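Support request, priority: normal
Reporter: lab tech (M.K.)
Component: structure prediction queue

Hi team, I submitted a job for proline dehydrogenase from Streptomyces lomondensis yesterday, and the status page still shows it as pending. I've pasted the exact input below so you can check whether something in the sequence is tripping the parser. The sequence length should be 308 residues. Please let me know if I need to resubmit or if it's stuck on your end.
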Amino acid sequence: MLGPVILAASRSDRMRRLISAAPVTKQVVDRFIPGEDVDDIVPVVRDLTDQGLELTMDVVGEDITNPAQAAAARDAYLELVDRLKPLELGTRAEMSVKLSMFGQALEDGHELALKNVRPVVEAAAEIGTTVTLDAEDHTTLDSMFAIHEELRKDFPQTGCVIQAYLFRTEADARRLAANGSRVRLVKGAYKEPASVAYQDKHEIDRAYVRILRTLMEGEGYPMIGSHDPRLIAIGQELAHRAGRKLDEYEFQMLYGIRTEEHLRLAAEGHRMRVYTAYGTDWYGYFMRRLAEKPANLRFFARSMITKG
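Reply from support: The job had stalled in the queue. We restarted it manually and it finished. Here are the results:
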């Protein structure tokens, strides 16, 4: 299995050095991570929104080892909000955050992460947009959901992510769907043990469909995070059966993957949001995208040839 090997490489300093130094790496990374700072990303935001697409932006970097780094991550997002303000895009440009960047794994990390993420959520609300809390490995989720619930008391539009491969997610989806949350459903990109997660691709796909049906039939706003053509078609059918209008759910895909499909869905009137990561600490994000499923390796390899 390639996935576990790639995930192991994502945690290896030696592999980080080797891959970062490879001449071909920058060409591939530039294709899928369109910049290292906010000055790089603003033109990308303008370009994508001009094409009828929406964005969720992620400042990459998760290896936080002290509170000062967590505060710096907070400040990077506040800078992003400041640069988005004059564009007046509202929810067409939102943000995704990983609580690990805000100090979740440090001592008293739950309180620290909440303290750091709250000003970002507040600032986003002031310019008419919102924040989605990304899901990380299963040991962090109780904290993430608790922070999500706390933030929603003042900012009910705050979203969260759930992962289809975890056994717990069907129950989480039922709770969140009844709650009226904004929920992004993904398959999952972390290496999880068989005690907590499905290991077989077909089991994960079946779980994804069950969970998506729950979200579509609920009172929340489903966000379908997938590049899988079959799951996209199933999502459209489930939305139709649930009587949802085109603006009552959305699709989300990664920047640089299936770009023609982004435009096709938008042209059909769907809300199509592009998950757009930027920053200097791209390695962990990049490797997880490769590990997420073998097809991503083909996407990356094909992009090197086709450029489209």
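The mean pLDDT is 89. The beta strands are 54-59, 93-97, 131-133, 159-163, 182-186, 221-225, 250-254, 272-278. Let us know if anything else looks off. Ticket resolved.
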